[in-house]
Amino acid sequence: MSLDTPVKGCLHTPVLRERGQREVFCGLTGIIWLHRKMQDAFFLVVGSRTCAHLLQSAAGVMIFAEPRFGTAILEEKDLAGLADAHEELEREVARLLSRRPDIRQLFLVGSCPSEVIKLDLGRTAERLNQRHAPHVRVYNYSGSGIETTFTQGEDACLAAMVPGLAETDAENLLVVGALPDVVEDQCLSLLHQMGVDQVQLLPARRAADAPKVGSRTRFILTQPFLADTAAALERRGAERIAAPFPFGEEGTTAWLNAVAHARGVHPERFEKVTAAPRARARRAVAAHAETLRGKSLFFFPDSQLEIPLARFLARECGMRPLEVGTPYLHRALMEPELALLPETALSEGQDVDLQLDRHAALAPDLTVCGLGLANPLEAAGHPTKWAIELVFTPVHFYEQAGDLAGLFSRPLRRRAILSGEVRP
């Protein structure tokens, strides 16, 4: 669909705000993709055995592997105040750093247990920085499920890094959000071909490549759940480039076009660089759109990806969003997306029982939801797509547009095959 296609968007659509029972993963889950991205970082969760089991299960790490995350487990004596948990934590950090000299960034990650007993991880990080700098930089942030949904763990992590970034007076572009390396390389290649130089990344793959920020820094988000990080960068004097998010051919083109406009790229050069990958993306999406076109869609709130994905599925795949729920709706970040999203019902927050009632009444062809709701809904005859898979799978930019559409077409094809409507 053309970027110029007229559409009655959702900029002025009333939003149903719900504050009831929630069904989401906690922010600790973000460690699973962040520890793979930052190659010399270590994430130390200060939490319970439940936190350790969650990370071990979500990451699928074998017991004899030594990943770049771990849990400092709070025992009964810590919870009862019979031991100084701060001293114990500092001792465990010293042991970790002596065993792993490759660590350059250490994140102390708060959890529900550590926050309930009010461990001051901020002060602990300050003391550890004084002791281990400059070899290791220590940060802290909260991944507690009390405060965060699972994608907000990344937001809290990146926001914690911003105050420590070096100052610069140079003009530079900062691309913000953790992307798989192959997707990041594609993004940088497109920007380079457009003539956009001085591009830096947050997070960088290694501490030595950490970006610099100043009043001449322009930044653009690749993920829609980075509101706190955006605010932290703006406090440092950086200016955000507003754009739709790079999902699908349309979103990617609009995202790149926003950068091109900000950096004075000539339209002819922009067209020359993007024409071929745009055509490939359209062909790849079209292969799945045949399955998706005309099908109805319901988003339960989970990842904050819901609005950009609904825009992609409606405008490029021909689906009909019946309700788009999101944990938080940050209007400043979502405005370009809301302008493009065809008119539909929007909800913010969650009240599971009420949303299940609306879902049952609407009976959509495809439901995007968390793992906790997927099995019951499948048992009731509703094809589902796990929302968490959309975060773990490479889905940004042109070359992944077909893969993104395929994540939604496969549940419908599977249901059709099982029901005998089509042959395998």
Write up this protein.
This protein is of the alpha/beta class. The chain has three domains: about 15-20 and about 285-420, 3-Layer(aba) Sandwich (Rossmann fold), CATH 3.40.50; about 25-150, 3-Layer(aba) Sandwich (Rossmann fold), CATH 3.40.50.1980; about 165-260, Rossmann fold (3-Layer(aba) Sandwich), CATH 3.40.50. The protein is about 45% helix and about 15% strand. The chain is built from 17 helices and 16 strands. The protein has helices spanning about 30-35, 50-60, 75-80, 85-100, 110-115, 120-130, 150-160, 180-195, 225-235, 250-260, 265-290, 305-315, 330-340, 350-360, 370-380, 390, 400-420, and strands at about 15-20, 40-45, 70-75, 105-110, 135-140, 165, 170-175, 200, 210-215, 215-220, 240, 295-300, 320-325, 345-350, 365-370, 385. The protein has a six-stranded parallel sheet, with helices on both faces. The protein has a four-stranded parallel sheet with strand order 3-2-4-5, sandwiched between helices. Strands 8-7-10-11 form a four-stranded parallel sheet, with helices on one face. Strand 15 (about 365-370), helix 15 and strand 16 form a beta-alpha-beta unit. Helix 7 runs parallel beside helix 9 (about 225-235), helix 10 (about 250-260) runs antiparallel to helix 11 (about 265-290) and helix 12 packs parallel to helix 13. The longest helix is centred in the middle third of the chain and has 26 residues, at about 265-290. The chain is globular, with a radius of gyration of 22 Å. The model is unreliable at about 1-5 (pLDDT under 50).
